[in-house]
Specification:
This protein is of the alpha+beta class and about 80 residues long. It has a single domain, classed as Alpha-Beta Plaits. The chain has three helices and four strands. Strand 2 and strand 3 form a beta hairpin. Helix 1 crosses helix 2. The longest helix has 15 residues.
Length: about 80
């Protein structure tokens, strides 16, 4: 389950600049500009979380929201498997 793609939704002060910065990160394999922000895919959610602040700082962009779209579903799955 940890190798599966994770979808992260991001809102920032400049989504295009942030998208450019994130595309250079090797743990990111897709970035999409949406009407409400960015949609990012990664198979390494923990590593991505540690990189997002640096990427936004490098791009000079302020993060407004970072939400893992499937994190709660993963938590439920982990709970059921460990029972």
């Amino acid at each position: 389950m940890t190798d599966r793609p994770h979808m992260i939704t991001i809102r920032s002060s400049d989504d295009r600049k942030l998208a450019t910065a994130l595309m250079t990160d090797p743990v990111v394999f897709a970035v999409e500009l949406t009407p409400t922000g960015l949609s990012v895919q990664t198979a390494q959610l923990g590593v991505f979380r540690s990189h997002i602040a640096g990427a936004s700082r490098w791009a000079g962009v302020r993060l407004l929201e970072v939400v893992s779209a499937d994190e709660s579903l993963e938590s439920v799955f982990d709970y059921l498997v460990r029972r």
